Amino acid sequence: MRIEIAKISEEGDKYEGEEPREVLELEKDKFIDPSGSIHYDLFVQRVSDQLVVKGILQVKFYLLCSRCAEFFSTTVVDSSFLRAYKLEEGTEVVDVTRDMREAVLLKIPPYPVCSAECHGLCRQCGMNLNKGICSCVPPEGPSPWDDLNRLKI
Ligand SMILES: [Zn+2]
Ligand SMILES: [Zn+2]
Fold first, then answer.
1. Nearest ligand for residue 135 CA
2. Could you say which ligand is closest to the alpha carbon of residue 133?
C-alpha cells in the first residue's frame, strides 16, 4: 500500500482495502498457503515529521496442522499494526507493503493446530485419528523410545 503524503488530511485518514496475496511472497511454501488477499483497515496521520500508520491486518491462510498434517483454513490477524515513518524533506510517497508483509508473517503460529481438540495421527500406523479410530494396540513393555521420552521431560 502506497500512501501519498500530500493527500493526507490534517486530522488523518482511514485507508481500507486489499493487497494481493502475492506481496506475501509465499507461493512456494508447502506448509503455509495464503488463500486470500491482505485486508487492511488502517488509520494514517502526520505527527510532526513522522507518518504514523496503525490499524488491523487480516489474511486468510491454509495452514498445515502440526498434529494431524491436514490443511485447515484460518485467518491470521495483526490487530495492533503500528509503524512510524520519518518524513524526510521531499518525501512524496511512503510504501507500507513490506512492513505489512512482515507483520502478517510474524503472526503465523509456528505450530498451528486445526482445532484444540485435534487428535493428531496414530504414532504406530499414521492414521488421522480425527477421522476414526485405528485398531492399533499400544505396545506393551518398555519401548526403545522410553528413555528418550523421559529425557524430553
Ligand atoms: Zn489437526
Ligand atoms: Zn494406529
1. 2
2. 2
Ligand nearest to the CA of 71: 1
The domains of the chain are located at 2-118, 120-153
Instruction: Report every protein residue that has its C-beta within 5 angstroms of ion ligand 2.
Output: 122, 124-125, 127, 134, 136
C-alpha 8/C-alpha 32 separation (Å) is 35
pLDDT tens for each residue of the chain, 153 residues long: 999 999 999 999 999 999 998 888 886 667 788 888 999 999 999 999 999 999 999 999 999 999 999 999 999 999 999 999 999 988 999 999 999 999 999 999 999 999 999 999 999 999 999 999 999 987 776 666 677 677 655
Distance of CA 150 to the CA centre of its chain: 33
Long-range contacts made by residues 105-110, C-beta under 8 angstroms, separation at least 24? Answer: 105/24, 105/26, 106/78, 107/76, 107/77, 107/78, 108/32, 108/61, 108/63, 108/76, 109/63
- Measured distance CA(50)–CA(12) in Å, rounded: 12
Expressed in angstroms and rounded, the spacing between residue 62 Cα and the centre of ligand 1 is 12
Ligand nearest to the CA of 70: 1
CA of 58 to the centre of ligand 1 (A): 22
- The whole model's pTM is what? 0.80
